[in-house]
Amino acid sequence: MDKGGAEALTQTHEFANSKGNVYRMRTMEIIVHVIDHATYHIGQLMSSVRSLGGNPAPTNYIHYLRTKE
Fold first, then answer.
1. Which are the contacts of 44, defined by CB distance < 8 A and separation ≥ 6?
2. How many beta carbons lie within 10 A of that of residue 47, not counting itself?
3. For 27-48, how does the pLDDT look when each residue is reduced to its tens digit (9 = 90+)?
């Protein structure tokens, strides 16, 4: 049966990390983790650009939406 909407976001997934530890997470928790992890690396890149004297490009989604037209 195909799961959609809120039910799909609460579906549990089981996986193992590279060390073989098994974890269970809901779809929504995985989505939040991916966004959070990406944000962490964007911060690292911006910090590196600034340390080299540069001015990093804006990376937030709302800026994209406001300037895409």
1. none
2. 11
3. 999 999 999 999 999 999 999 9
What are the φ and ψ backbone dihedral angles of 25, each rounded to 5 degrees?
Answer: -140, 150
Q: Please report which confidence band the pLDDT of residue 3 belongs to, taking 50, 70 and 90 as the band edges.
A: low
Stated length of the chain = 69
Predicted model pTM: 0.69
35/27 Cα distance (integer angstroms): 13
Q: What is the DSSP string of 44-61?
A: HHHHHHHHTT--PPP--H
The CA distance from 59 to 45, in Å, is: 11
